Amino acid sequence: MLKYIDMASNPTMDSNSLDRYVGKASIHGYAVLAIEGLDSYKVFNGVQLIPRISFKFNELGREVLMKRECIKILRSDSLEDLKITNAVKKVAHAIELGHELLRSMDRKALKKLVNAGKPVIINLRDVIRLINLNAPVLGLLLLLRYYERGRISLVVGSGAREEHELLHPITVCSFLVSLGLSEAKALSSVSINPLSVMRSAGYDILR
């Protein structure tokens, strides 16, 4: 049975908001949430909560290096800061792309991602916002083609900040299929692929 994982949760960290958020995730069938800013591993309402920390390529300092027992994500918001150095590759468990890259990413940028050999995370919140604005999503469509052909590993997270933004994983998969992904690839992006990121960070959580 597939276990659904959200690699990109960003809820408000006060206890009431977090409780509501995790409660909604539990109702939707998520087994694991990777939460930005969480201080330590927790289990609540049957959902495992994993800390994650995001950093830009020029923020790879002591705070990131010394952080233990968390998932470390390189965050790239534009073509200019999509810089994947050897130092970054040693630290980052995955690379997260911002909405500007989903608009404008080209084959040169995608070649960087392929050569980096790291799973790529996109946030559904960013995708929906671009589509609602009728903005071009050429970078996203190119990324999906690379993923469908097996050239990269893709993880689709919610990017949700409030519980009402957290969609059921089957809804997420249906949305991805509407953008051209096969059902198998869509399901992997919210289950198998994020699980491999978790395990690379030392969380063998679903055995």
UniProtKB/TrEMBL annotation:
Name of protein: Uncharacterized protein
